[in-house]
Amino acid sequence: MAPDDAFRGLVCLDCATTYESELPAHACPSCAGHLDGRYDLETGSLDLEAARARGEGIFGLAAVLPVGAPDAVSLGEGSTPLVETPALAEKSGVEEFLIKDEGQNPTGAVSDREMAVAVTAATRAGADRIAVASTGDDSQSMAAYAARAGLEATTHLPSRASFIHKAMMNVHGGEMSVVEGRLGDALEAFEADRAGPSAVHSMQPFENPYRHEGLKTLLYELASQRAGSMPDHLIYPTGDGVGIVGLYKAAKELQQLGIIDAMPRLWAAQAENCAPIVAAWEADAETIEPVEYPDTICGALEVPAPAGGARILTALRESNGGGVAVEDGAILSATVSVAESEGIEMGVAGGAAAAAAWELSASGEIRPEESVAVVNTATGNKDADLARSHLMSQGV
Question: Who's near 65: CB < 8 A, 6+ residues apart?
């Protein structure tokens, strides 16, 4: 299968209207619904080992992406380590505990997988300026890939965003708007920007249909690293839901391709004081209600109204997974514990996933004979001040 051969354009998940190639670039023109990539996949048509051997990072998987290596805006993202952690397996009382360390990406975040594909698609669409509202990682990543592609980049950040994210946005030459308040206020600033006279190509999650396509390469890579064997459980720190939706889509494709037999149980890890997905899952609801007063030390997870909406709940239910909310103290303790016991520098969002794994193990959802993988979505350096402050509060 040659690169791009399987891509058949986009379909609206609400009204089922189909569109050829990369048009339109964003929401469905007919109903403003979410668009999703369509593929014609055949069992045995993708060789994961050959894809890895080509040395093209995530674009070695161009056969299951909307864009291919010749056009790629890439910084060498992907090929991140899958680390066995025997000390954490013993602590959790499970057979195998793995960490997929996305902090090893070029800007230190899993967002690089998303932005590599989305920015490549933006260049194909003839964009001049791309923009996003973000808690931090998405902004830094977008600025880096915009610089690589020669595009203008504008980000709208809440004032609570870290100094590192703000500094690197400037370093990459992006235009930055820091808004007093939280993510909702940054989103309002983004909408005002889009309504202005200068054309904006949106990089917002799900409004841009290509970000979760880039994210799904994580599971393809994990399948390759484990020779087609999936962990029993896969835990992802979840804000807007790009990760859960992308992983679920990848799992279905890998099954269709005959590479895996069964998908892992997908779990969304959230912060207790901003857990709209967990609340909806526990209530067996069909929709997710926004959190009125979100307040967590974990900025990446402070997303009160996840853009993925019901698609997240579908992924959790159909994978027989669910949602887990953990309080801030447990998140910080897990972040430090992983670094102390295994040497892996996790961001606090990754710490939420680790803490969720321990809760699932303690409750019996993860059995002793099973394997679990957690995704560290960002490097610990971005949250070093939080981890160190937690240690100091413990008298260390």
Answer: 3, 4, 7, 58, 59, 117, 213, 214, 217
- What pLDDT is attached to residue 3? 43
The predicted structure's pLDDT at residue 23? 59
In the predicted model, what is the mean pLDDT of the chain? 93
SS3 283: coil
Q: In what order do the strands lie in the sheet with 201-202?
A: 175-179, 152-158, 129-133, 201-202
Q: How far is CA 294 from CA 53, 120, 290, 390, in A?
A: 44, 33, 9, 21
**Sequence-ordered list of residues with C-beta below 8 angstroms from that of 98, at least 6 positions apart, any chain:** 82, 83, 84, 85, 231, 371, 372, 373, 374
Q: What span, in angstroms and rounded, lies between the C-alpha atoms of 388 and 336?
A: 9
The helix (run of H) or strand (run of E) holding residue 357 is: helix 348-363
- Kindly report, residue by residue over 94-142, the tens digit of the pLDDT: 999 999 999 999 999 999 999 999 999 999 999 999 999 999 999 999 9
Distances from the Cα of 180 to the Cα of 159, 161, 183, 187, angstroms = 5, 10, 9, 12
Q: How far is CA 349 from CA 74, 101, 110, 155, 356, in A?
A: 25, 12, 11, 21, 11
Using DSSP bridges, classify how beta strands 18-19 and 82-84 pair: parallel, antiparallel or unpaired: unpaired
Place of tokens 């669409």: 125
Q: What is the mean pLDDT of residues 214-221?
A: 98
Look at residue 92 and give its three-state secondary structure: helix
